[in-house]
Amino acid sequence: MSDAHLLPGPLEGLRILELTDAAGQFCGKLLGDLGADVIKIEPPGGERCRHVGPFLDDIPHPERSLSFWYYNTSKRGITLDLNAADGRRIFARLAATADVVLETFRPGHLAALGFDYASLHEQNPRLIMCALTPFGQTGPWRDYASTDLLHMAAGGEMASCGYDQVDVPDAPPIAPGGGNAWHMGCHFAYIAIMAALVYRTISGQGQYIDASIHEACALTTEAAIASYVYRGETLLRQTGRHHAAAATNRTQFRAKDGTYVTALISGGLNPRNVRNLAALMDSFGMAGDLMEPRYQDPAVIAANASHIIDDLLASFIASLPAEQVYHAAQERGFTWGAVRAPEALLDDAHLHDRGFWKQVWHAELGRSFTYPGEAAIYNGSPWRISRRAPLIGEHNTEIFCEVLGLSRAELSVLAESRVI
Amino acid sequence: MAGPRALDGIRVVDFSWVRAGPWATRWLGALGAEIIKIEWPESERGRLPSTTTPQHLPVNLNTSGNFADTNVNKKSLSLNVRSPKGLDIVKRLIAISDIVIENFSSRVLQKWGLGYEEQCKIKPDIVYVSMSGYGHTGRNHHYTTFGPVAQSVAGLTYLSGLPDRPPAGWGWSYMDDTGGMYGAMCALTGLYHRNMTGRGQHIDQAQMVSSVPLNGPALLDFTANGRGSCRPGFPPGNRAHWPGTPLLNNYRGPTVAPHNAYRTHPGGYNDWCVIVCRTDEEWQQLVRVMNAPRWASSERFATVLGRLQHQEELDDHIEAWSITLGKYELTERCQAVGVSALPVQSAEDRVEHDPQLRHRQIYREMQHPALGRYKVQNAPFKLSQTPAENYLPAPLIGQHTREIVEGLLGYSHDELRAGFADGTFWPARRERFPYLEEMLE
């Protein structure tokens, strides 16, 4: 292993001011984990995401939200009331030192406080400002309320997810959980910010970014739009596999341990795939009649597709634990996987080999916790969690006094007035 | 005259195929980079699936609708990279490029003699993004993925479904889309770092690995609290919590009710609305929108704990009302008073009926030389100085071979013709499309 992990991150030297709620905090984490100095600005008392569970040891407290912990690594934290004149003056001074302002307020909110992009840009021509909002800054839905579930509905995710009639009759469309609408918005916002940063290395000028979560979600349904645009098709929801214009073979099978295996036959049931499948199943004594030479005839395969999949393949998988099927199949070149609950990932040897899990120190608790690490390994400038999420106002002194030059006495006055 | 683009002057050598890699370079292209897509008709994966070819057109390498949407803003060079001459041309291209991106299985490029070390010899500050299934290191690096398999192995499939039922999963390759996002994010991050320091690097992005951080809160619930997701009531369908199961946060925001999908008029396959009330005030607003029915005044529904406990009854009542309204009308009535409601939208709904997407011009028509005029998806962000706009339709296979080989690399026309004859630019015995014949005249 090289000592690349000791190098600065790729975004070292950038200062980001993050004023976000649940919708944007992941984008700030990505920027921070990649080396930027992300300063999270929360209202006095803390941002409302601190009240989202689960909480450490199930004790609700704004410093114990595991969701907040996860989405706010590698950031410094300050508190500031932008509704107070002192708060606005301080924010203006901070914005003059920043490379990027990332915000998720309702459209027009910052402008009403005097922080429209034109004003901030006048003070700091290199400043990039990204407003990441549910629907963008314009349009008939601009001021609509939203949640992660709402975005999964309107973005088209739900229309593609659900069950075969045989599994759950008349099932509703299903929204995958985990806050992925926010992830989708944050991925695109990150791309837009990086594009603006790259352009700034040439032009020296910042710019304004109007990013929409609804649009990000609407763009994240693979071929659904193309199926409609080019063929006029509306797609069916199917259990554990792709939406499709007409029903397709199932690909999710129950294993011996009660969990499932995703077993797609890439390229479909052709003689070569059937031969390989028979060899895989035969290595566990479960090939049934599939070793018979007649299965090398495409016509026989086609006539017996249901027997091969619903009897033989299903029985084979039902005879073994899902993890065993997964590894045995992959070793033989099958693109199959075990359907795992997230906690099973802690036992994944491959992730351990890649040094994926990180210990993050929480000094105030006197212990460290295991966090998921980097999505990609940068060999010249590492992706790294540099610190746990900030406590409420943890870096007020550091930033207000050391960066902006306020005195301790001024800081006390601001605290008394609840500006910080 | 178009204005400046964020990635003007940036050239990308793009070996990617199928979906995740091409989805990454699509956005680099929209941002202004010159994307040179290297393809070979004999081993093509991504152009042929016929499921999005318009019914009136023949199925061939140039008529996949999904390929056309996934590959706007690119140029196509058909090239046999596994021939010595082809490899030499690739090296010349890399020498004048900024980014190399591919989504082969791990180590394929290395086998071709184009691993990172080799790329550095040709172009010392190259940014190389590999987008494999499992990454270039780790004991399972040779495993392969599709989106659905990465989603299964990394815990994403498990997040979707009704309790005590099989996982519903994701009805598409979410991790092809999102893997593409990570590919583009890595390329841009590496490019920024190069511009600032003069140094390139290899970024080893992996579809399966990139999926795992999307489960952050669930993973921390396990590592910090010892609580796994294998438990009664998880996943909770569209709800924040499934009634009758232990009252726990299920990693989709605050635990509230109502929080569900409800049938709307006229009850078709995609006639559903989702409604969420995060506070008592929002609940009272919803009650008013429903014309304050007698059931809603029950004490059972007055508090969030009550609404969670009596969710089955609550949802039945709401659906008895929602089924009387169309999903867009229900949405407007709710949103007018601040209640969170939106329609479940199919692709047709998004393209034809969504007033917001229409206003923001997300789907704009482009003329494609083989397909004709169709709507293409546009960026979900607006950069004020360097807009990301589609400026080239997806290329026909090999369409830009002459432009690149002669115009960019300086080969003569005779050398181009010789390369077509000897199987460098097109399989010698394969029939050539008319535009390729024209290219050789």
Relevant terms:
A: 420 residues; alpha/beta; Rossmann fold; six-stranded parallel sheet; three-stranded antiparallel sheet; 17 helices; B: 441 residues; formyl-coa transferase, domain 3; 18 helices; 12 strands; 36% helix; elongated
Describe the structure.
- The complex is a heterodimer of chains A (420) and B (441).
- Chain A has helices spanning 25-33, 66-71, 85-95, 109-112, 117-123, 148-154, 157-160, 180-203, 213-218, 224-231, 271-282, 298-303, 305-318, 322-331, 349-353, 396-403, 408-416, and strands at 15-19, 37-42, 75-79, 100-103, 128-133, 161-162, 208-212, 238-239, 252-254, 260-263, 336-339, 358-362, 367-371, 376-378.
- The model of chain A has no long low-confidence stretch (mean pLDDT 97).
- Chain A has two domains: 4-220 and 352-416, Crotonobetainyl-coa:carnitine coa-transferase, domain 1 (Rossmann fold, 3-Layer(aba) Sandwich); 249-254 and 260-339, no CATH class.
- The longest helix of chain A is centred in the middle third of the chain and has 24 residues, at 180-203.
- The two termini of chain A are 44 Å apart.
- Chain A is elongated and about 85 Å long.
- Chain A has a six-stranded parallel β-sheet.
- Chain A contains 17 helices and 14 strands.
- Chain B is of the alpha/beta class and 441 residues long.
- Chain B folds into two domains: 11-212 and 360-440, Crotonobetainyl-coa:carnitine coa-transferase, domain 1 (Rossmann fold); 237-263 and 272-343, formyl-coa transferase, domain 3, CATH 3.30.1540.10.
- Chain B contains 18 helices and twelve strands.
- In chain B, the strands form three sheets. Chain B has a six-stranded parallel β-sheet with strand order 3-2-1-4-5-6, with helices on both faces. In chain B, strands 7-8-9 form a three-stranded antiparallel β-sheet. A two-stranded antiparallel ribbon of chain B has the order 10-11.
- In chain B, α1 (20-30) packs across α7 (174-197) and α6 packs across α7 (174-197).
- Chain B is elongated, with a radius of gyration of 26 Å.
- The mean pLDDT of chain B is 97.
- At the A-B interface, α2, α6, α7, β6 and α8 of A face α2, α6, α7, β6 and α9 of B.
